[in-house]
Amino acid sequence: MKTTLRLPDKSTKINNHMMRKLLLLFFVIAGITSSQGQTTSPFGNVVLTSNSGNTHVQVKQNGDLHVNVAPNDATKFNEDGFVHYSDFGAKGDGKTDDINAIAGTHAYANQHGLSVKANNGASYYIGGKDRTAYIQTDTDFGTATFIIDDKDVENIKASVFIINSNLKPYKLEGITSLKKNQKKIKANLTGPSLINVTNDNVRHYIRYGLNQDNGSSQTDIFVVDENGKVDMNAPIIWDFENITEITALPIDQETLTIKGGRFVTIANQAVSKYNYYSRNITVRRSNVTIDGLVHQVKGEGEHGAPYGGFLSIRNCANVTVKNTVLTGHKTYKTIGSVGKPVSMGTYDILVGHALNVSFINCSQSNDIDDRTYWGIMGSNYCKNLLFDNCTFSRFDAHKGVANATIKNSTLGHMGINAIGSGTFLVENSTLQGGSLVNLRSDYGSTWQGELIIKDCTFVPNGGRKSNASLIGGSYSGQHDFGYTAYMPEKITIENLHIDDSNHTEDYKGPTIFSNFNAKKTDESYQEKFPNVITKKVILKNVTTESGKEISLSPNKFMFNDVKVITK
Questions:
Q1: Digit-coded pLDDT (tens) for 264-285
Q2: What's the mean per-residue pLDDT of the chain?
Q3: Residue 222 contacts residue 178 (beta carbons within 8 Å)
Q4: What CA–CA distance (Å, rounded) separates 69 from 388?
């Protein structure tokens, strides 16, 4: 039997709008009917009902939220396609703790695929309750203010907002090893995924110095398509002889957008120890854009615990933060792992196990050259990080970054701190750190790849009296970091102006490399763990404010084999 599908003509297209409304009403009623008992949200311990009475959010005896939505309200919300925090009881008066209403709003929106809007001009107070709002739909914070009070907090590790996926991670079976730059994996995948792999039998990043430790398990992240093909823009960077755990995190294909909002953290007054606060916005979903957010910090005193990033981006790919203002945190000291005083890292940006993370047109609310504030950003295990048109106190990679780009930006007193691999490009930017690029000595001053600096200005130590070196770091050769340490194989420096006008009396001019090992001055020095020295440096149009010529290094022996080409 042959069936012909006929498209409706104008005469049969009778009130399509009305038909859509009827279908919508049908699905709403069906949803209400099926939820006369209750539906449990998978995140945040929220019970959703749609019974007669008012729309409200209540806290049950066990601490779970009970969100009831009146049937008439449910119909309206679905017709509108969005909900407001006030619809669920948020006062927005700056005094009433609104976190339960906010969490309930998002739970309902997640369940029904609705976007969320803050009430413009509202001021939402968020106290210290152990409550997290999970965001899975587009959210517009608008002109609202969110006051996050950290003076008395039940759970310092609990995020205020978590942007997450409803796609569940799952373990992969049958993959026992991986090779560096491997192009494909054999796995049963549900779709494009972020792969997180670990070998607990190998230790990397065995830290040296005041915060020394025993290192971390070998790990890597990479993206594959539904057929297991690896995205070679972010390749596998280690050989895994054994795999103790490998997990696939499915990637949402649609981009989730979070817009607006002014967030004010009232800083904690805790004892200055390594007890990191996570009262933040955490991104755990791939394909997310954060646009137009402002975060400020108030009430920092003489002591306090550090922060693990107001924007914490981890276990995800393709995240863009743009048109956003963030704030550096005051630096506090504690006793480090070797029993000596140490300044604690404290961050407004923390990125971990993430790929393709971009900060575009972003800035810092406080002075990027004020040394009472720690560097605003830290990262671990990332690939393809970007700063474009940003004004921040620091770019930082602790446990390695594979490929990074800084362009059209200004970096303050902590400059660029990095270790990692791939290509590091710095272009059309002003750098004001102690070195143009500092290769972190606590992780072996290693960069296995290429460093490119183009069309930049370097102001050593922000114009304070100092000597100038472009590539900073140190390496004794006596500590095992868990890997071979490399200096950049090739360094290209083109159109660089060094503003070294304020220098020390004995200043002889800038150097390409600082003195990485003052003890390594001849062949008698024995390294237990030798590093691999740079092979080639290309200089083109490098000028100095002092008029002094650039030279190789104070340690001519260590860098004797480096080929310097001047064009």
A1: 999 999 999 999 999 999 999 9
A2: 93
A3: no
A4: 44
Considering the domain architecture, whether residues 143 and 177 belong to the same structural domain is answered as no
How far apart, in whole angstroms, are the C-alpha atoms of residue 131 and residue 115?
A: 20
Q: Which residue among 235, 250, 265 closes a domain?
A: 250
3-state percent breakdown (helix, strand, coil) of the chain, nearest 5: 10, 45, 50
- Both 205 and 117 in one domain: the answer is no
Q: What angle do CA 480, 481, 486 make, to 5 degrees?
A: 105
Q: Which amino acid is at 273?
A: K
- φ, ψ at 420 (rounded to 5°): 155, -145
Closest CA to 118 of 154, 80, 86, 149: 86
Q: Is 341 domain-assigned?
A: no
CA Rg value for the chain: 27
pLDDT in the model for residue 41: 67
Whole-angstrom Cα distance, residue 323 to residue 43?
A: 29
Let me know: does 242 contact 273? Beta carbons within 8 Å: no
Condensed to tens digits (0 to 9), the pLDDT of residues 104-126 reads 999 999 999 999 999 999 999 99
* Same domain (yes/no): 31, 88: yes
Q: Report helix, strand or coil for 298.
A: strand
Query: Do 183 and 73 fall into the same domain?
Result: no
Three-state DSSP class for 415? strand
Shared domain check, 495 and 548? yes
Residue 262 covered by a domain: no
Report the C-alpha gap between 118 and 76 in whole angstroms.
17
Look at residues 116, 149, 182 and tell me which one is the last residue of a structural domain. 149
145 and 174 share one domain: no
With a threshold of 0.90, does the pTM exceed it?
yes
Are the C-beta atoms of 278 and 159 separated by less than 8 Å?
Answer: yes
Residues 566 and 432 in one domain: yes
The total number of structural domains in the chain stands at 3
Q: Is the pLDDT of residue 242 over 90?
A: yes
Whether 439 and 479 map to the same domain: the answer is: yes
H or E, element range at 74: helix 71-80
* pLDDT tens string 307-343: 999 999 999 999 999 999 999 999 999 998 889 999 9
Other Cβ atoms closer than 10 A to 84 = 19
Domain presence at residue 390: no
User: Alpha-carbon distance 146 to 123, whole Å?
Assistant: 6
Q: Is residue 453 a part of any domain in this protein?
A: yes
- 230-247 burial code (b ≥16 CB/10 A, e <16): bbeebbbbbebeebeebb
Q: Which 3 state secondary structure label does DSSP give 363? A: strand
As a whole number of Å, the end-to-end CA separation of the chain is 78
Instruction: Domain of residue 122: give its range.
Output: 27-149
